[in-house]
């Protein structure tokens, strides 16, 4: 197992390098030069040229890439000009908030999605199946930002169950219950789409598994139907559900952008949108590379979970 | 194509989705012709008018602009951008996928590695990075969303292309001297179009959502031009005071995406052949029972007696009579063989006993199954479950598919015990080891920790038998347990079952298509054909002097070892389809000595005590040599 994990980690290195290349190339596409963007259109040519030199933008592209990569490997993601602080510090702080939001949403969508899919498949064509199928259709069709806004309107403004926005109360203690009351609505709004996708997939995976011969064996043994569904069938269905959880984690992580904007959540997504609007290129680069790298590592965890779950996979 | 449209139209939800989408698209198309207010003219005096107020059906926004007009123009823009993005992604992705799949080798490798890299990004993040580079703007948002979706298309299309690139018609085109470009355009592209259509129908909704999302963030359409996303984005600041400005564009996005998703699901279902046969329905916990005829009176004795059992499969409007009135009984310590070709209904008979026939489509429509005198057909699930595995246990064919692949065999054995009585973990484990030893598995202590795939075929079948024995049942129903095994292993398994029967007084129902196996193990044998028993009697009698022509020909099919003089005779023709059974004898069409009255009326199973045969002209020579 350790060998397999090491192998997967090693195989992630080219992917991570590829990510930096792609991000770097995208940023190199930028029309005009960043120095003008930073200094504004009233900057003197001399100042622009000096800043370009300072940023290393007068060097060939390949050289620029390796300088940028080398700096990042040493933990230097550059300095954000709009915030005037190191990119990495800002990203780490913001990513912490995003992780709380996206992590909660991910757990929610995994648990609820799989449960809904299982119930749906076990009662195929029954009323529970129909209700879930309809809810799922609604869930995957509603824009998360619109859903978030409607939830604020209903649960925060009208019912006053939850705060309208933010991660912490403006006045008062920053304790776990304060966090939870701020977290509930955004986490649900973020989880809805992925829950729908996972429920859909879990349903079809379960239907596929329930037709297998070993399910008949379990029934022939006299295993209770609950055990047949939740132990035998779900266990086998998880093998095809887990990889989709990996993909959905990516949707949840990046979909957090919208939710962070709607709920004023101080996460990395909101930071990126602000950085794009102020054309703070280094901050965008650093944020994207960092989040993408985390996602790659998370997918390794998913792969490892997959091999733990299926003894037939040779590690 | 028309078949596809018909299928699509039959799907009512898809139809509803299609109609709504058509309405929205039509509305968007005629928007410039409608007598609407200018969507961009601001009138601050009329800010935030409520819906249904004079001159503004849906009210006005924070700048006093008419919401209805803005909604329709915004819908037009959102639809155009979403579909354009889908088209760009489809064309770009298809081009990449076709090139990679067609040329293969290093080209393929290089392209697909690049695609994998792009897919390693969290979806929206990549779109953000692209917008960051190109700058905010609706056209740039379109490019970003399309670019992000290209890998998905490329991967799908490549897979299909690889499948066709080496087919005969492509090779033929190559040999005829067609240029590569022409081969791709005339042979490959037409074949990948259905895949492109499916992929588009499932992603276009996403793309509309994503472009709306970028606009919502302020990175898409720029003021005063507005698509639905930016309308929602601008309305957000007035969400609490004037929610209608948010609700109007939000609901529109929901309606559009939902109708596209409904239609997309319909398209996918119509193009996915697996769903056409209704194959994806799951079997329920117990077979459905729909007994129309009165329950037959008990007549046979024995621990397990099947009387007039009828099991059918209802697929769409077809009815397959898999079991058409079967009577069988087995006593403790007795082994009853059921023999017949595949499709003769022998397995369905066996599975009907404990309600294990997959349902839907299976339905038990008549007869009784009496265990110790009590009818089980229609018994509540609780009673069936209680008997399953505890009193009546099954051994199935091919234990690779009938054992759960992801649980250790020991755990599966323990579960069989725990389904009926509570034992401690240690006790269960000891019992599992003991069970494995009783079926003569070497090293049972270490084997309990093996997964099914780690065992050989013979060992797996022994596990299957051990599982059946877990609760000391009274009846074992073995459904072709040795068919998947080689001959020496088969002999060992048969010897094992025979010992168990003698030692424990088990009643065994043994289903097979092999007369050799029947001869070794069974006291009595019943021959099934097209869902009915055609002959029954003590094994030696039936094998030595078959009375039904079918039995005789079946025995003649068995090859003899050594200098067999007789010719091996296959039975001409095929068994009749059980949804269109002929009147009279089902074997008549394949029978050499068929008479006109064989095809008329019901032919009863007649006999004297031990022997019975369903034939008007039974064979009377002993061990007739066929066609000699």
Largest interface, Cβ cutoff 8 Å: A-B, 82 and 80 residues
- Derived from helix and strand composition plus strand pairing, the structural class of chain B reads alpha/beta
Radius of gyration of chain A: 24 Å
The count of β-strands of chain B is 13
CATH topology of the domain at 97-281 in chain A: MetI-like fold
Domain ABC transporter (chain B): 304-555
Transmembrane segments (chain B): 77-103
Domain ABC transmembrane type-1 (chain B): 75-264
GO molecular function, one term (chain B): ATP binding
Description:
The complex is a heterodimer of chains A (315) and B (628). Chain A is an all-alpha fold. Chain A has twelve helices and two strands; from the N terminus they run ααααββαααααααα. Chain A has a domain of 185 residues: MetI-like (MetI-like fold, Orthogonal Bundle). Helix content of chain A is 77%, strand content 1%. Chain A has a two-stranded antiparallel sheet with strand order 1-2. Chain A is globular. The mean pLDDT of chain A is 87. Chain B is an alpha/beta fold. Chain B folds into two domains: 221 residues, Orthogonal Bundle (MetI-like fold), CATH 1.10.3720.10; 243 residues, Rossmann fold, CATH 3.40.50.300. Chain B contains 22 helices and 13 strands. An eight-stranded mixed sheet of chain B has the order 7-8-9-4-10-11-13-12, with helices on both faces. In chain B, a hairpin with a 2-residue loop joins β2 and β3. The longest helix of chain B has 37 residues. Chain B is elongated. In chain B, 46% of the residues are buried. Chains A and B meet through α1, α6, α7, α8 and α9 of A and α4, α5, α8, α10 and α13 of B. Chain A: GO terms for molecular function: dipeptide transmembrane transporter activity. Chain A: Pfam families: BPD_transp_1, BPD_transp_1_N. Chain A: It is found in: Cell membrane.
């Amino acid at each position: 197992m350790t060998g397999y994990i090491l192998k997967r980690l090693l195989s992630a290195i080219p992917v991570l390098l590829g990510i930096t290349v792609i991000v770097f190339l995208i940023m190199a596409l930028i029309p005009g030069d960043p120095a003008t963007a930073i200094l504004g259109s009233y900057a003197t040519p001399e100042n622009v040229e000096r800043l370009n030199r300072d940023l290393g933008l007068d060097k060939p592209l390949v050289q620029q890439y390796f300088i940028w990569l080398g700096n990042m490997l040493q933990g230097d993601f550059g300095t954000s000009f709009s915030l005037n602080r190191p990119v990495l510090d800002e990203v780490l702080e913001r990513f912490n908030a995003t992780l709380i939001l996206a992590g909660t949403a991910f757990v929610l969508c995994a648990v609820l999605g799989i449960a809904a899919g299982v119930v749906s498949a076990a009662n195929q064509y029954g009323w529970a199946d129909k209700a879930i199928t309809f809810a799922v259709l609604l869930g995957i069709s509603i824009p998360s930002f619109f859903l978030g806004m409607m939830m604020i309107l209903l649960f925060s403004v009208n019912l006053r169950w939850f705060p309208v926005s933010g991660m912490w109360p403006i006045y008062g203690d920053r304790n776990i219950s304060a966090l939870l009351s701020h977290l509930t609505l955004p986490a649900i709004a973020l989880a809805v789409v992925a829950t729908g996708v996972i429920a859909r997939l879990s349903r079809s995976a379960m239907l596929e598994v329930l037709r297998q011969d070993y399910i008949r064996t379990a029934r022939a043994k006299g295993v209770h139907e609950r055990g047949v569904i939740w132990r035998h069938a779900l266990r086998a269905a998880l093998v095809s559900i887990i990889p989709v959880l990996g993909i959905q984690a990516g949707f949840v992580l990046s979909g957090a952008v919208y939710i962070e904007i709607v709920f004023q959540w101080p996460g990395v997504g909101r930071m990126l949108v602000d950085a794009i609007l102020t054309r703070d290129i280094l901050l965008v680069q650093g944020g994207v590379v960092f989040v993408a790298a985390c996602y790659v590592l998370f997918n390794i965890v998913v792969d490892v979970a997959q091999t733990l779950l299926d003894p037939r996979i040779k590690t | 194509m028309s078949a596809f449209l018909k299928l699509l139209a039959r799907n009512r939800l898809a139809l509803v989705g299609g109609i709504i989408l058509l309405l929205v698209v039509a509305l968007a198309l005629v928007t410039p012709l409608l007598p609407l207010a200018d969507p961009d003219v601001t009138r601050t005096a009329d800010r935030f008018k409520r819906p249904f107020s004079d001159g503004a059906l849906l009210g006005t926004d924070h700048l006093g602009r008419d919401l209805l007009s803005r909604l329709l123009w915004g819908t037009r823009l959102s639809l155009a951008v979403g579909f354009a993005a889908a088209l760009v992604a489809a064309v770009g992705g298809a081009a990449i996928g076709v090139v990679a799949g067609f040329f293969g080798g290093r080209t393929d490798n290089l392209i697909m590695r690049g695609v994998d890299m792009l897919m390693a990004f969290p979806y929206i993040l990549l779109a953000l990075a692209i917008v960051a580079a190109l700058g905010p703007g609706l056209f740039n948002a379109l490019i970003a969303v399309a670019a992000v979706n290209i890998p998905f298309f490329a991967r799908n299309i490549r897979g299909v292309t690889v499948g066709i690139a080496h087919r005969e018609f492509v090779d033929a085109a190559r040999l005829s001297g067609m240029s590569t470009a022409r081969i791709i355009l005339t042979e490959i592209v037409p074949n990948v179009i259905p895949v492109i259509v499916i992929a588009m129908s499932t992603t276009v909704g996403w793309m509309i959502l994503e472009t709306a999302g970028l606009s919502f963030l302020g990175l898409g359409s720029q003021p005063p031009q507005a698509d639905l996303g930016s309308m929602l984005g601008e309305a957000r600041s007035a969400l609490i005071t004037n929610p209608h400005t948010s609700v109007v564009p939000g609901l529109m996005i929901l309606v559009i995406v939902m109708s596209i998703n409904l239609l997309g699901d319909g398209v996918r279902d119509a193009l996915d052949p697996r769903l056409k046969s209704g194959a994806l329905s799951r079997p329920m916990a117990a077979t459905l029972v729909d007994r129309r005829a009165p329950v037959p009176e008990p007549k046979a004795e024995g621990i397990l007696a099947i009387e007039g059992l009828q099991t059918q499969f209802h697929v769409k409007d077809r009815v397959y009579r898999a079991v058409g009135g079967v009577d069988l009984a087995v006593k403790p310590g007795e082994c009853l063989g059921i023999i017949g070709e595949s499709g003769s209904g022998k397995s369905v008979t066996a599975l009907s006993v404990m309600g294990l026939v997959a349902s839907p489509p299976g339905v038990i429509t008549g007869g009784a199954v009496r265990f110790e005198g009590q009818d089980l057909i229609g018994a509540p699930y609780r009673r069936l479950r209680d008997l399953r595995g505890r009193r009546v246990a099954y051994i199935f064919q091919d234990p690779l598919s009938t054992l759960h692949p992801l649980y250790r065999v020991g755990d599966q054995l323990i579960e069989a015990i725990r389904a009926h009585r509570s034992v401690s973990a240690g006790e269960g484990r000891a019992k599992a080891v003991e069970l494995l030893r009783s079926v003569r598995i070497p090293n049972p202590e270490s084997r309990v920790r093996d997964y099914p795939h780690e065992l050989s075929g013979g060992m797996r079948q022994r596990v299957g038998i051990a599982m059946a024995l877990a609760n000391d049942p009274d009846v074992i129903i073995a459904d072709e347990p040795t068919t998947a095994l080689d001959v020496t292993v088969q002999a060992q398994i048969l010897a094992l079952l025979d010992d168990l029967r003698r030692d424990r007084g088990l009643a065994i129902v043994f289903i097979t298509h092999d007369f050799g196996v029947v001869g070794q193990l069974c006291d009595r044998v019943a021959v099934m054909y097209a869902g009915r028993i055609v002959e029954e009697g003590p094994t030696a009698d039936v094998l030595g002097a078959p009375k039904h022509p079918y039995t005789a020909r079946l025995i003649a099919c068995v090859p003899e070892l050594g200098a067999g003089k007789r010719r091996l005779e296959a039975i001409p023709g095929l068994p009749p389809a059980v949804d269109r059974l002929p009147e009279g004898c089902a074997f008549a069409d394949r029978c050499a000595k068929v008479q006109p009255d064989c095809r008329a009326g019901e032919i009863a199973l007649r006999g004297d005590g031990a022997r019975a045969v369903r034939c008007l002209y039974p064979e009377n020579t002993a061990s007739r040599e066929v066609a000699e």
